[in-house]
TrEMBL record:
This is G694 protein. Residues 3-227 form the Asl1-like glycosyl hydrolase catalytic domain. Pfam families: Glyco_hydro_cc. It comes from Coccomyxa viridis. It comes from the Eukaryota.
């Protein structure tokens, strides 16, 4: 799929070159008010005049992100509403997300329920969230619960398979399945992969990068080609054409080509993440990285397993 939008966890685009590319390409830039910082007190100053949406606080139930209790966020929300109303913007919810350690609340639904309980009648036009799992089925369950509970469109503004020591074929299989889930779910308006360059995010692993490292001009990885394509078949055709014309990156192995071309397993459209992951949401930290680790990882609660284990020391 062609890139239609982007964001940078901030209110604006500080880089003039990025501003120029965004304007010339027609790609939407969506500003975010990250938390109680980063231009919050100056709203609506700093927001682009041509914006049509505004994203709310980033992972407020995670202490290492915006770190806000639901009642704090609800108290701050009228500031975002005022900016959205002045500029006629649709307003996305605080992007609560599953959390394993260093959490205000592990369960994003618990955080959202308390936020909405403290923000009765507040403007929230769509639900923004993140999900780090390697299972398209768990992703589908998570999306089901969001729409069932809140009845609003969904923006999945971060997703990837945490795969620090895994194979590229595993990442490719997940991406194909996840994109199919997202594209076929009428309740999902937008989504964004994390990230173009993985860099220091070693808990995700280099297989999640959309761009080849240290290549100038930038060149798409196999995953990036799938992300930019409408289907695996389109990817295979574009990869072959580009390799003939410009010299493509390292050729795919037989296993990696199979990950792109093999039929995807069926994904059930029904089911509940809250029900499936209840034991993980209530588990001790020891259980999260112990007896239940494989299951809780698919629930999106163990993206960064090394950091979780550090909390046990």
């Amino acid at each position: 799929m062609p890139v239609q939008w982007w964001y940078n966890w901030g209110n604006g685009i500080p880089d003039p070159a990025a501003q120029a590319v965004t304007a010339a390409s027609g790609i939407d830039f969506v500003p975010m008010t990250y938390g109680n910082c980063c231009g919050f007190s100056d709203l609506p100053s700093g927001l682009p005049e041509n914006a049509t949406e505004l994203l709310g606080f980033n992972e407020p139930n995670h202490w290492e992100e915006s770190g806000l209790y639901p009642e704090q966020a609800a108290h701050m929300w009228p500031k975002l509403m005022g900016a959205a109303q002045k500029l006629n913007l649709r307003l996305g919810s605080p992007a609560a997300a599953p959390c394993g350690a260093n959490c205000i609340m592990r369960n994003p639904f618990e955080w959202w329920d308390q936020f909405f309980g403290n923000c009765t009648g507040c403007q929230v036009d769509f639900i923004a969230t993140h999900m780090y799992t390697c299972s398209p089925q768990y992703l589908q369950w998570y999306l089901n619960d969001i729409y069932t509970r809140y009845g609003r469109p969904i923006w999945l503004t971060e997703l990837a398979c945490p795969n620090p020591n895994g194979t590229l074929s595993r990442q490719l299989k997940y991406a194909r399945g996840a994109f199919k889930v997202l594209d076929e779910d009428d309740n999902v308006e937008r989504y964004a992969w994390f990230a173009p360059h993985i860099g220091a995010f070693d808990w995700i692993g280099p297989t999640a990068s959309l761009l080849e490292p240290d290549v100038d001009p930038p060149q798409l990885t196999a995953l990036g080609r799938i992300y930019m394509s409408s289907s695996a078949d389109e990817y295979m055709q574009s990869a072959e054409v580009e390799s003939e014309l410009a010299g493509a990156p390292a050729q795919l192995s037989a296993e990696e080509r199979a990950a792109i071309t093999e039929a995807l397993p069926d994904i059930s459209k029904t089911g509940s993440w809250i029900q499936q992951c209840a034991s993980c949401l209530d588990a001790s930290l020891e259980a999260l990285v112990g007896s239940q680790e494989a299951h809780c990882r698919e629930c999106g609660l163990i993206g960064n397993a090394p950091a979780l284990r550090e909390n046990l020391l």
